[in-house]
Amino acid sequence: MTEFAWRDIVLLSLCWIGYFVLHSLLASLAVKRWVDAGWPKLMPYYRLTFNFLALLLLLPIIGFSHHDPEPMLWRWQGSAVWLANGLALGAMLGFWLSLKSYDMQEFLGLRQLQFHVRKVEDQERFQLSPFHRFVRHPWYFFALILIWTRDMGVMTLLSSILITLYFVVGSWLEEKKLLVYHGDIYRRYMARVPGLIPQPWKSLTKKEAEALLKQNNY
Predict the structure, then answer these.
(1) What's the pLDDT at 4?
(2) Contact 121, 29 (CB under 8 A)
(3) d(Cα 173, Cα 201) in Å, to the nearest integer?
(4) Which bin fits 109, alpha (ψ -120 to 50), beta or left (φ > 0)?
(5) Which of 3, 102, 130, 212 has the fewest CB atoms within 10 Å around its CB?
(6) Cβ-count burial of 141 within 10 angstroms (0-12 exposed, 13-18 middle, 19+ buried)?
(7) How far, in Å, CA of 194 to CA of 132, rounded?
(8) Interhelix angle for 3-27 vs 29-38, to 10°?
(9) What one-character-per-residue DSSP string does 43-111 give?
């Protein structure tokens, strides 16, 4: 590869790492508590602003990674194309179906703004959708399918690897917060269900999920 290609690889890596660090910091309880201590009136806007910045800062990174035709490493061929695209469509369908299991008003930050919620902790209670019976982070799982079923060039592969690593680290950081929010009930859930990749031998039946939720309501 040329000197310019290596420069782009280093620059893209730094952009992704900077994005991940900033994203994790802004999502952390420590930063939220700092904002709440200094500017409590800003807390109803925090989640909405966080999501807006996450999207806004992501766009130039994606644009940069596709600004020039990249050297291709592999393309799906023949029947593999149908398999890859079928998996990707299945992941998009799973993502769409999962939306009804989340409180999207709170996830986007609209509820906090509407009701002037100033609490640092997320307000959504512990619940288990059908997908959560098989994997603790279904959105990450669907995103991984979408990422790894695409044709891969140098920049695409680099982005895919870094995003995958961030999902591993980010899910660990997220679960530290979930343990603060939900305590022992989430710890028991973690022991039964895998984090990012479903495993047929580790899952909850519908009755087991209902029993776990019932224990949480006591």
Answers:
(1) 58
(2) yes
(3) 25
(4) left
(5) 3
(6) buried
(7) 10
(8) 60
(9) GGGHHHHHHHHHHHHHHHHHHHHTSSPPPEEE---THHHHHHHHHHHHHHHHHHHHGGGS-HHHHHTHH
> How far is it, in rounded angstroms, from Cα 56 to Cα 52?
6
pLDDT of residue 182: 85
pTM recorded for the entire structure: 0.89
Residue-wise pLDDT for 69-115, tens only, equals 667 888 999 999 999 999 999 999 999 998 888 888 888 888 888 88
pLDDT at 142 over 80: yes
Tell me the three-class secondary structure of 105-157, residue by residue. HHHHCHHHHHCCCCCCCCCCCCCCCCHHHCCCCHHHHHHHHHHHCCCEEHHHH
- Round to whole Å and give the CA distance between 206 and 218: 19
Q: Is the pLDDT score of 119 beyond 90?
A: no
Q: Say how many domains are in the chain.
A: 1
- Find the mean pLDDT for residues 121-133: 79
DSSP letters for 87-98 = HHHHHHHHHHHH
3-class SS at 196? coil
